[in-house]
Amino acid sequence: MPRLALYALVVCVLAVVAAVVSFAQGSWLGIIWVLLVGLSSNMTWYYVRRGRAASPAE
């Protein structure tokens, strides 16, 4: 897994945790975290696919 994909995955997991905590506390600011989850998960898939395309086919 490429390094940038790993970083994006970590951001995605942390944003999920932040969204859960935010909604559990009754704050609607968790919506911002949910949007960040969507963005970071798309970035993760992009970098994974880009890394697979760059590696030679076996």
Summarize the entry for a quick read.
This protein has 58 residues and is an all-alpha fold. It is built from two helices and no strands. Helix 1 runs antiparallel to helix 2.
Assign the structural class, choosing from mainly alpha, mainly beta, alpha/beta, alpha+beta, or little secondary structure.
Answer: mainly alpha
Distance between the termini: 16 Å
**Overall 3D shape:** elongated
Tell me about the largest β-sheet.
Answer: none
What's the count of strands? Answer: 0
What is the number of helical segments per DSSP (H or I, 4+ residues)?
2
Rg, please? Answer: 14 Å
Protein name: Secreted protein
Transmembrane segments: 28-48
Keywords: Membrane, Transmembrane, Transmembrane helix
Organism: Streptomyces violascens
Keywords:
mainly alpha; 81% helix
What do you see in this structure?
By secondary structure, the protein is mostly helical. Helix content is 81%, strand content 0%. The protein contains two helices and no strands. It has helices at 3-24, 30-54. Helix 1 packs antiparallel against helix 2. It is elongated and about 50 Å long. The model has no long low-confidence stretch (mean pLDDT 93).
Q: What's the arrangement of secondary structure elements?
A:
Blueprint: H1 3-24, H2 30-54
